[in-house]
């Protein structure tokens, strides 16, 4: 889409520049560049997949109304006030929509805030709550219950894949250290 870079250089008046920006050919902001450097390629791909699910017209942006749903799907839990503040901060042109680069900036901000707020003690309490039978492990059924409680439609295969990703010793369960590592990767 950005094969218009030559045209950008030739765009002499503000109207042509705005038109090119509308087509998605803006130079990334420092915040957008920083966001990409903070995230792994895997996380960017995960965020892109979630973003694309809500970009129903394929136009490269999502409405602010849909943003809360996307964030909840990705494990974030913004309040309405937080969501409004985030949207105001990242929706640079005030269009009421968020493009993918703006979305990445927003997600990195949320991840950093969440990471700063979750101590190992808090995560230990979460682990105890999730470990329903108090055996020191989150087994497959407990894990599936956690995933389903998010309200998102998730297949059994997706649950198995998520568990496998976190289960470093391949015993079919998450111990506390594996849970901590998984939570670090989410954040």
TrEMBL record:
InterPro entries: CALM/Myosin/TropC-like (IPR050230), EF-hand-dom_pair (IPR011992), EF_Hand_1_Ca_BS (IPR018247), EF_hand_dom (IPR002048)
Annotated coiled-coil segments of the chain: none
Span list, region Disordered: 1-31
Keywords of this entry: Calcium, Metal-binding, Muscle protein, Repeat
Compositionally biased spans, kind Basic and acidic residues: 7-21
GO MF annotation, one: calcium ion binding
Gene Ontology CC entries for this record: myosin II complex
One matching Pfam family: EF-hand_7
Gene3D superfamilies on file: EF-hand
Keyword Cytoplasm: no
EF-hand domain residues: 42-77, 78-113, 118-153, 154-187
Superkingdom of source: Eukaryota
Family, per entry: Belongs to the troponin C family.
PANTHER family: MYOSIN LIGHT CHAIN 1, 3 (PTHR23048), TROPONIN C2, FAST SKELETAL TYPE (PTHR23048:SF57)
Protein name: Troponin C, skeletal muscle
Species assigned in the record: Denticeps clupeoides (denticle herring)
């Amino acid at each position: 889409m950005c094969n218009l870079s030559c045209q950008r250089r030739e765009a002499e008046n503000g109207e042509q520049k705005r038109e090119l920006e509308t087509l998605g050919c803006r130079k990334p902001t420092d915040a957008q560049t920083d966001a990409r450097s903070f995230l792994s390629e895997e996380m960017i791909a995960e965020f892109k997949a979630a973003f694309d699910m809500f970009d129903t017209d394929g136009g490269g942006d999502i409405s602010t109304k849909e943003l809360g749903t996307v964030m909840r799907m990705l494990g974030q839990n913004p309040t309405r006030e937080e969501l409004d503040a985030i949207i105001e901060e990242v929706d640079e042109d005030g269009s009421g929509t968020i493009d993918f680069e703006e979305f990445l900036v927003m997600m990195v901000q949320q991840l950093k805030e969440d990471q700063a707020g979750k101590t190992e003690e808090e995560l230990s309490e979460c682990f105890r709550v999730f470990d329903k039978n108090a055996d020191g492990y989150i087994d497959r059924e407990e894990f599936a219950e956690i995933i389903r409680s998010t309200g998102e439609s998730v297949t059994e295969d997706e649950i198995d894949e998520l568990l496998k990703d976190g289960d470093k010793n391949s015993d079919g369960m998450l111990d506390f250290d594996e849970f901590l590592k998984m939570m670090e990767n989410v954040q």
